[in-house]
Amino acid sequence: MATISTHLRNFKEPTRDQLTQLFFSLPVDPQIEGPPGASANEKSGSSSSVQGAAGGGDMERMEISATLSLGVSGVEEPYPGKLYLIPPYLAFTSLDRKSVRFTIPLCTVRRVERLNARAGIYALSLLLWHNMKIVVQLTSLRPNADLFCALLRDSLKVELQRGQMKLVKPFSKTSFSEILLATASEDEKEAAAAREEDLRATETMYTGGLGLKFKFPGDARKLREASKTKLWTTYLKTHGRHLTLLRYPQCTRLVQVGLPNRLRGEMWETLSGSIYLRFSCPGDYERILEANTGRTSTSTEEIEKDLHRSLPEYSAYQSEEGINALRRVLQAYSFKNPETGYCQAMNIIAAAILIYMSEEQAFWLLEVICDRLLPGYYRFINSMPMVFAFRIIDCFFCMGPKVLFQVALAILKINGEQLLQIQDDGGFIHLMREYFASLGDSAHPNSSDPRARAITRFQELLLVSFREFAVITDETILSERRKFRSEVVHSIESFSKRSAIRNLKTLERFTKDQAGLVYDALFKAICIEPPPDVAQPPPSLLTTKDTAEERPETRIGLKTFRVFLSEIATWARSEKIVMNGFQDIVSGLNGVMFNDLMENIEWFFNLHDNNKDGYLTRGEILTLSESLLFIFKHEIGDAYLGAVSRFMSNAFEYGDALLPDNEQPQPQPQEENDESGEPTTPSIETNQPYMNLATFRMVVLADEILESFFETDFSSTFKLEPVPMMELPNSNSGLLGGLWSTITSDDSKKMFHKISDEVGKSFGKHSAVYRPAIGKFTHLEEPKARESLLTPTMRRTASRTSLNASNSSPDNSAYLTPATSFATDPSTHSSPSQIATDSLSAASLASSEFSPMPSMFEAAAHAAVMMERTPFAIDDAKDDDEDSDLDDSEDGDEDVMDEVDAFLEAHDTGLTEAERELAKDLINASPVK
Amino acid sequence: MTDAASGSQDRSVQVKLVLLGEAAVGKSSVVLRFVSNEFQANKEPTIGAAFLTQKCRLEDRVLRYEIWDTAGQERFHSLAPMYYRNAQAAVVVYDVTKASSLEKAKTWVKELQRQANPNIVIALAGNKIDLVQPSSSTPTSDSEPEEEADDATATPGEPSGENGENLRQVPRDEAEAYAQEAGLLFFETSAKTGEGVVEIFTEIAKKIPIEQILASSRGGASRPGAPGARNAGQEGGVNLEQNAAKDKDGCNC
């Protein structure tokens, strides 16, 4: 895969909207926009949402300050924060951005009422699915609040029209929490209604992970599954579940203590946000598999190799059932994301999550992990005993990628003393391995306090991670990334360059340095004009074993090549040219730059001999002349123009003279027909063989300028100069990028495009410097004696032509006139491109082997110094039946609560006592009539 | 060696060795066999690279192999130079039941010869010979070839209906001829049975220019810029080739 990759350089900082979406775990790709049409028009009037940023969707977005209260008194404190309307979602976060948050699809909102409260207080009561009530007090100015309500109403209407509301019920049946609560709510007041509904749910839809059948890793008793389940049941009862889950501090703490196995899958997809993808794309998973049944690709081959090597010690993956599930999930992902396809390590993560969730859930979660949650850091699954790894994954989904950094730092800190004494890599890996193996041991084995002795090293690790490294926030990570991005980009690029050059089949006659310059010029061209997306390789490629030659490689488009050529040869600035890879270019340039006189003439001849029969037709001669004019168009003075004119008349006269006798009568010398140099319509067929190489050579050599051109000048027009450090737009941080992100509406974007085009014209290299590439002959000189190889008549004609030409004005546009008027046939327009095509594609295809990986995996691989997992069998799971440890659940609860308390932090909501009172009142307030 | 001033008797010679080869040919398994004398039937794929060490004794010297076991998936190819840079030895592994893996091995060899340390000792290892040996190929019962293949090191998903020599896609002669031509050590191995594995590392150890390594590491690490670095080479001027020839089990691992 000799792909010259520029995507790192093209990295764009996420916009504010995207960051918000990311924060709320919303699908980044707006696959689930509101329907176009009516709703959009309806909305266009109110485009002035106060704090809202106009985003990708059709529906208006808006954020507003609000205070959130739970509809049940005494369960949670009211929290001030921000309420976001991001159709089709409603989201909230507390001011500290971590204590409280929710992301709720609008279709789960069943009723919204304005509450009747004190004057000046604007509050909404939202009744959600699960009969859960929340109260939001909009603490913004009245007009803002009114606007928000209007937008909310519209968005809800749209959701209703789309029929999304109907989807909630069947969807919720696929969630384990419904079963959990249905069985737990026996003695509740609303049990009657709820149970009827929920029990029906249990019959059908819910499909759990492989763990249900093949047991979950770990000892249920040791993991205190029953106690955890009980705590979660209580929490979910009052705080919503799956689509409607409200995340209060308690939620995060319960996650930190570890999710119960059966609930784990659902909570993962809820916390990570993959649930929204699954909800908005029902049936996609099945459809993808169906549409690609029987298809094979490099990815599917690679998947097959690894299927039996994914958590092989887990019994499900020793059975067909587990293997098949894993195969389907990985294949579905590779079909959906052909660019990423399959990368080793996905098998391990997929195998791990399939233990806890259904195939469809796993498919979407994999998508979220790979695309959104900064993939590549998931190696720890392999290094730690699985039970602990899953605990960290719990936190990862709940609190985001920063968890990985916090845990990693904590590991380093805890082992700091020993790490400092280590001499080499081997020692480091040994220490890590030992440490991971001992995670289940007591952190303070010698302590006199039994409670302290009970704290495991793993608990200690989490405590250190979340307490001492709480300073690591997503913002920290972002800013560090920003700081080092260019450095990383630079080193990766220079590495790519070195390997690209190393892997060239042949350097031809270039030196390494020169090849490097070619690479730089090409790279710059690709940056300026990204090549078109690589088309899907033909199916035949997919099924064959990839030999070096068949691997896809960098293909550049016409536009890119144009930029490239203009980098190295000034005459090429602003015209068009072709498709080619790095090797092609090196080989092609080789010909151009190192040929001698005769080779160059022959090369030029062959380029224009379209059918390779050894003869140029009249049309081809015209094309050739046009090519010469094109190359000469920026030369100062008219010497070159004259030379080409002479060339043409000589060529035609000579060619005509050589025509067989049975041909049409001699055509009139062209210059007699038309002063402007336009040739007569040839009286012979344009496609008839007309001139051979020997004649061509003779005609060229008849002219000093042309001779000199082919001997040295042409080759020397290709200048390999160091490409200056590229000032390319590599991120939004640049001036234009910064401007860009602030320009949001479509109209202004268009305007901006126009402006930037103009700006580009004014300072772009391609328009500013039309410097002559050769510049040797600046004055028109009278033809020299060598023309005597032609007859006196011919000679007279030739000089008259040149005189004609010399009369024309010397500016560029005039120079181009003959070229355009020669274009008797539209195909001749593309002559410059043909030059390049022929010359370069004549070279063999590159088969260079360097293959920069998609950055995500690169990161993974860089980070990964694999540590062999300490041999780890699935813990004894016989005792998995949760009822069996009910007897010690009392103690267990206490233990778990101890652990929960360990994570307890003061969550200062920042509300005054009075505000708190008000919020409480609102819970019981009646709606406005 | 007692009189070696810098204490060469305690200091083992560090040899950086890299494993390369197509995915699922058994690179990690070969290392695991060498380092821990173990075999795992379905070893998880290596991501990025793995690092292991193993000490072994050759004559009076202790070699400490620092083994970089690389990932085989094509996608990780571009990382390989990081691992083979400065490596003194490389083991390029292919799978005798998969012809394409030898082709891949050849491209690795070519890359190493072009870009790695010029003195690098390269060994070519055809792994999984347990699959093609007559002992495991008892074609008496047609009913359970599947199981046998699963049991062995067959790459899952490969057509494994047949046993024994039928599975072999790379003739020993062919690979050996290639190895000779390219100047490589050659072995056929089975990480599963252990056959041939230790031999690879022993033969590499014999071929490694240990004195050079010692000299350079002494000159570089313990006594930076010391002009007497050459001493090491003279003092330890043993002809390894000779010694190795008479002492078959120099490597104690």
From TrEMBL, chain A:
Domain Rab-GAP TBC: 258-480
PROSITE patterns cross-referenced by the UniProt entry: EF_HAND_1, EF_HAND_2, TBC_RABGAP
GO molecular function: calcium ion binding; GTPase activator activity; small GTPase binding
Annotated coiled-coil segments of the chain: none
Span of domain EF-hand: 596-631
InterPro entries linked to this entry: EF-hand-dom_pair, EF_Hand_1_Ca_BS, EF_hand_dom, Rab-GAP-TBC_dom, Rab-GAP_TBC_sf, Rab_GAP_TBC_domain
Keywords: Calcium
Biased composition (Polar residues): 678-687
Region listing for Disordered, in residue ranges: 34-56, 658-687, 792-836, 874-897
Entry keyword Nucleotide-binding: no
Compositional bias annotation for Acidic residues: 877-897
Protein name as it appears in the record: Rab-GAP TBC domain-containing protein
TrEMBL record, chain B:
This protein's name: Ras-domain-containing protein
InterPro entries tied to this protein: P-loop_NTPase, Small_GTP-bd, Small_GTPase
Organism: Antrodiella citrinella
Region (Disordered) residue spans: 132-168, 216-253
The organism's place on the tree of life at top rank: Eukaryota
Residue stretches of biased makeup (Low complexity): 216-233
PROSITE patterns: RAB, RAS, RHO
SMART domains on file: RAB, RAN, RAS, RHO
Compositional bias (Basic and acidic residues): 244-253
Pfam family, one: Ras
Record keywords, A-Z: Nucleotide-binding
Gene3D superfamilies, sorted: P-loop containing nucleotide triphosphate hydrolases
SUPFAM superfamilies per record: P-loop containing nucleoside triphosphate hydrolases
One Gene Ontology term of the molecular function aspect: GTPase activity
PANTHER family for this protein: PTHR47978
